[in-house]
Every structure is written in structure tokens, then in C-alpha cells.
Fold this protein.
Amino acid sequence: MSEQFNDNKNGEYHFTGEQLNNTSANENAFNEASRNDAAQDAASQNGSAQNNTSQYAGPQNASSQNTSSWGKAPYGTAYNSMPHNGMPHTEANGHGRKPKVKKPMTTGKKWAMVVSMALVFGLIAGGTMFGVNSIGNLITGRGNSYTQLSQTQTTSGSGTSSSSDSSSGTVAEVASNAMPSLVTISTMSVEEMRNFFGGTQQYEVQGAGTGVIVGENDTELLIATNYHVVEGATSLSVGFIDEHSVEAEIKGTDVNNDLAVVAVKLSDIPEETMSEIKIATIGDSDELQLGDQVVAIGNALGYGQSVTSGYVSALDRDLTLTYSDGTTIESTGLIQTDAAINSGNSGGALLNMKGELIGINEAKSSSSTGGASVDNIGFAIPIDKAQDSLQEMMNMETRARVDESQASYMGIQGSDVSSEVTELYNIPAGVVVAQVVENSPADEAGIQEGDIITDLDGRTISSMSQLQDTLQYYAAGETVNVVVQRSGNGGYEAQTLSITLGSAADAQNQ
């Protein structure tokens, strides 16, 4: 059996000896057929001039319906009447000679024909494959359009090396490689402030922070940041490396760890921007040692991304944070660095000298408990601590604020559990229920006075204001799970209750 194989190196097809013999046999048969045709032509040339006109232009010539797309003469009767020089073959014009008998091809010519056939076959096969791929790209929506983001480039050196180590990247290299994964975050929120006459008035306040691209799904780009960056935001936008900005939504929040995930619809991001952004490469913060050099990138003061560098000053630090709504948390296990971290840097990237993400910048300390001024002390959440929380939030459903006509309510009165109470009495942080409205959704769900609400639909609840803000993303009539901590057996036990939210408008009319 003959073989045909492809040489991947040059893309040409090669044939075995048996196929060469078959080719030669076919050529001999072709030559023999040519002689027979020539003899028939010679015999039919007498009187052929009477038929030539109708064969060129006559509608009865059926072969004219199958004219070759390359413009050559069609096969059939018209071929026999085709002249060598544009004139018919007749005895009158002196061209009625006997056809010459073709000599058999030499071996060299046979090889040349085989190579030519192989080249033509390769071109046709390649063109066909290109056409198939092009059609496939149209069907799947791929091709020139975006398919999947790549990760940021890292240097070949050790992730914990200092800049003096020639095997590690320089600060400039680290910053250049990581910048496509950094975004600026701009927020608008509403705050109440006391006016001159002793009352309160609402004002729109603009905020700025940073985020790190940490993943994507089928429809969204996912960005990690701090909770305090997006806290209370009524709207937010994300700016990419090419300075193009798009609207975004808060996908999930983790108040106790000061983390949040922001989602941007892939359909809202231009193709040019998609070609420039990347997902941050995650490192191992557990490998950090005192004295390791690090690079911090963030939207300092809202001016745009800036780069600072320093060293790991300490590990496993704790920091007390107070949010704008008055909620206080204890952020633990932090990385302390002398790299400058200023307002706007929050939510940005702390990178090792390999260019890997090892922390989410969180805060700086400007004064000690004694009131002394402090310089060059910043804190970042280790990525190993943040990773599980971020992954959980990335899997949440992204929600937008519902219309006012669909606003929901639970039917409770509550207050915050302060951090002091939590520490002194070992009471869980959350919202303690002071009163349950009779026949309200909370009452029907089984929520009781003294319960502490700590979670709504997988979202951490640490204050009454946060519970009210979270409810703005849920419409009346939706059924969600609420986790409450209930006192019993000398402590608190978690219970998950199902609640169908009521209409806020109906509640106000009662």
C-alpha cells in the first residue's frame, strides 16, 4: 500500500516510490489517449470548417454552460475545433498537418511534475485549513476578538530577593510588568453632614482608590480591592492602564477582612483595552522574610498610579480600622512595609521582586497610640490570607441596586455590636436585633430579639448601616438566607434562616 506523509518542518507533502510508479503509469496512459485523440482530430478535419462557427457561439453548444472559472476553453467538442493561432484547423489554411507524436517524459520531468503537484496540493490544503479556521472563528466569536486574558510577566529571579541580587528584577521591571493588572477606582457616595443651623444635609462625596485584576469569568472582569474603598458607594468606575474608564459594580464584600471584589462587564471594555490589560500573577506571601524588598503600586491621592519601593519591616502585624459608618474592625496578620502607602493606594498591589502579587495595600499609620508622629509604616493584607475570601466573593452573583419602587425591608430594629463589646463579652460582631416587627418578614422567618445578624445571602454584616446598604441590592419578594448568632448553652450558635423580603413601600403605608 502506498504512503503519503507530511513533513511538519517545511509543510511539504512527500510521496513513496510506489506512488511515483503510479504517476508514471498514469502519464503513459494519458500520452496514449492523446495519440488517439490526435488521430481522431486528423480524421474529422475534413468539413470541420462548417461546424466551427456554431461551436464558438452557438447556443446549442452545451459545454458553454460549464465554462471554467479560470477562463480556459471548456472540455467537449469546442476543444477539437480550437486553433493553435486563433484560426480553425482546415486544409485550406495550411494547418491540417498530422499531429506530432509526443515523446515519453524523461525521469527529470516526471520528478518535476510530482513536486509541482505536491506544492499545489499543499497550497490547496493550507488554504482550506485557513478557510475552516476563519469560519470557526466567526461561529465561536473568536479570531481577532478577545478570548482570554494572560497573566502578568514575572522575572526569573527569586521572589524574595533584594534589588542587589542580579537574578531578581529591578523596581522598574517589576512595575512595568505589573502595571497592566492595576486599575484606578473612582467612587461617588452620599454622606450626611451637620449644617450651620444644627440640622443635617446630604452631600455627594467623591473617593479614589486602587484595584488589582485577579480573575475573570464568562462575562466579567474581576478586581480585588479594600472594602473601605467601595464602602457606601452609590456608583463607581474603573480606569485601566490605557486610561479608559468603565462603570463597575460591587460583586462582594468582606467587612471583617477589609476586602471587596468589583466586577466589570467584559462587553463594556473596548477590544483595544482588553489587549493591554492582564491578570496579576499570584505569589506566596508565606515565604516573605524580614528585609525582603517589595514594590507598592497605587492611585496615590487620586492622581493615577504611582510606584514606591521599600522592605518588609515586620510580619503578622495587627491594625484597628474604623470605617466611615463608625464600624471598627481588627485587621490581623498584616505585612508591614516602609514602602510609602498613601491615600488612594488602598486596594493596590504589594509585589515581590519577581513581580508576583503578595499583598493588597490597606492603610498607613501616621501616629502612634501615644500621639507621636509616625513615618514609613504601611500595611498590606497578605495574599495567602485574602485568597479564600476573594475566591468566595468572585463566585457570588453580581447585583445592581434595585429601583426605589422595588425596595425591600426585613422588619427589625437593631444596633451595632461594638468592637469593645465583642472583646469584653465575646459577642459576635454584627447587628443585634432589638425589636422584631409583628407579622413582618423577619417575624415570619423566625428571627428573635437578641439575635445577632452576621450574614445576608453570603455577605458579611457588621453594622446596621451596612445591612441597610446591602438590602438596596435585593428586591421585595426575593427569598434569601440570613445567618444569626443566637445565645444558648453558655455561648452563641449560628443558625441559618430563610426570609422572604417585604416591600418597603407597603411597610411605610402601614
The longest helix spans residues 107-140. The radius of gyration is 39 Å. The longest strand covers residues 200-216.
